Amino acid sequence: MAYKRREPVSEKEMSKNRYDGHYTICQKLREIYAATDDKDIKMDCRIAMAMAKAMHERLKAYKKQQQQDKDK
Which residue in 50, 49, 59, 58 sits closest to 25, CA to CA? Predict the structure, then answer.
């Protein structure tokens, strides 16, 4: 299944550090972004971050809908 294209997140978003006791896919992408000088890899990380954030939002919506269906 193909996913629609996402706009890459900003470079500012990639410089954030949000480790709150659990390791996230976004944090790993930030580490890869910081560890490389390759512009293509940096752009791939930004796009992957946007995809991960979109997936997270969709999963939250699914969970909310599932809870509403359960409460009926």
Answer: 49
Angstrom distance (rounded) from CA 41 to CA 63: 32
Per-residue pLDDT of 23-62, as tens digits, reads 788 889 999 999 999 999 999 999 999 999 999 899 999 9
Token representation of residue 41: 């890899």
Residue 28 one-letter amino acid: K
Q: According to the model, what pLDDT value does residue 13 have?
A: 84
Angle at 60 between CA 14 and CA 21, to 5 degrees: 50
Q: What residue ranges do the domains of the chain occupy?
A: 23-71
Q: Are 7 and 50 in contact (CB under 8 A)?
A: yes
For 41, 55, 66, 68, the CA distances from 61, given in Å and listed in that order, are 30, 10, 9, 11
For 30, the token pair is: 């930030």
